[in-house]
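Example 9 (inverse folding). The structure is encoded as follows.
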């Protein structure tokens, strides 16, 4: 009889614990969202059960958007509140502490109810909610960095933000200002604030922001300098797949293909389904004449996202290197279909025509590629080679006629 009771009750307790966890997460994030709506006068987004998954079902209430991730368990207490940080320091503090404060108030209320005259079933329900509230408070006050799915930068837990506030108001303001400008794509202004952050507070999240700014501003040599300055630090091993992809991209632009390949390998190891890293690694393998490896990466990239023109032009390059001209032509046509202005599609079409000894048409494609993008790989070399193949026609002399 006792065993049957336990078997019946435990699933109910599990369900109650997860329902209460879901409600506590929602209350916690609303604790941030409501003052954010009041102070910023702008849109606010909260996530329940996830860190920034925009593919979850959403509900919109005026300026507030709520994403809810349906899942079996909510005990991990994943939740996030996104809002614009262009507000005063005091209001920032209020928004940060509002979430944990609401949960703490619920905890105190539940504790007071437990000591009131209630039956055993009510006490069990109150205890379940109390456990959920304690878990939520511990998870959110524990200092940690959060990887958000729809963002290229890291976010901070409530506890981490409170530590930054307590230690140094100035650094916190510079970091939050940099995040604001970064999200608004004003990378020069974001970089101005990041450079004012004390080196003591330099970590993988600030590094990631600076890296993204340099890439957006095309300061590739400064990317190398930044990486060299911090690659021996303790936190460097925590940088993300996006960061390694950025480091690789800088090396690609500088034509340093071997180190680019190292970073791309690390990026793909951390995120095997990252399209950009697979596509760029295919490109780098092409530059290193590793055509079979290039094609393998590009096949995976196209399987993940078949709507990007550059993946097809890169695979066309690999197919030409492997002697598969027919497959290359199919990829070239697909690349043009997706993006008629893809300079690499013109390059690979020129290469295909060059192999077919159609030099005049090949030259037209190479020159079009250069016109679209002067930095197109190997285009200058192919223009010179193709011109050497085209015979120079001597002007035809007019025959003299005797006038009568």
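The amino acid assigned to each position is listed next.
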């Amino acid at each position: 009889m006792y065993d049957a009771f336990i078997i019946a009750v435990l699933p109910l307790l599990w369900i109650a614990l997860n329902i209460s966890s879901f409600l506590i997460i929602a209350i916690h994030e609303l604790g941030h969202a409501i003052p954010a709506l009041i102070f910023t006068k702008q849109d606010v987004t909260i996530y329940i059960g996830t860190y920034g998954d925009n593919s979850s079902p959403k509900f919109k209430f005026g300026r507030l958007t709520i994403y809810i991730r349906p899942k079996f368990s909510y005990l991990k207490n994943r939740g996030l509140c996104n809002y614009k940080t262009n507000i005063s320091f005091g209001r920032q503090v209020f928004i940060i502490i509002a979430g944990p404060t609401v949960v703490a108030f619920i905890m105190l209320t539940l504790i007071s109810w437990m000591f009131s005259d209630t039956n055993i079933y009510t006490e069990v329900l109150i205890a379940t909610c109390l456990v959920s509230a304690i878990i939520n408070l511990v998870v959110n006050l524990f200092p940690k960095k959060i990887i958000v799915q729809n963002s290229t930068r890291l976010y901070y837990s409530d506890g981490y933000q409170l530590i930054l506030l307590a230690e140094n108001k100035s650094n916190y303001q510079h970091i939050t200002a940099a995040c604001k400008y970064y999200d608004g794509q004003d990378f020069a202004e974001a970089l101005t604030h990041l450079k004012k952050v004390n080196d003591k507070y330099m970590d993988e999240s600030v590094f990631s922001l600076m890296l993204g700014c340099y890439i957006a501003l095309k300061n590739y040599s400064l990317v190398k300098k930044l990486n060299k300055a911090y690659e021996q630090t303790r936190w460097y091993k925590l940088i993300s797949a996006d960061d390694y992809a950025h480091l690789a991209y800088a090396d690609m632009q500088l034509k340093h293909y071997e180190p680019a390949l190292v970073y791309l390998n690390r990026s793909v190891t951390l995120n095997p389904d990252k399209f950009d890293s697979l596509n760029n690694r295919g490109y780098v393998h092409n530059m290193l004449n590793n055509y079979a490896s290039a094609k393998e990466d590009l096949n995976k990239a196209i399987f993940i996202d078949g709507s990007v023109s550059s993946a097809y032009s890169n695979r066309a390059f690999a197919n030409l290197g492997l002697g598969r001209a027919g497959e290359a032509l199919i990829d070239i046509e697909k690349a043009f279909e997706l993006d008629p202005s893809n300079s690499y599609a013109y390059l690979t079409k020129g290469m295909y025509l060059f192999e077919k000894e159609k030099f005049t048409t090949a030259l037209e494609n190479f020159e079009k590629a250069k016109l679209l993008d002067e930095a197109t790989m190997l285009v200058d070399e192919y223009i010179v080679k193709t011109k050497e193949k085209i015979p120079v026609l001597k002007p035809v002399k007019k025959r003299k006629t005797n006038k009568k």
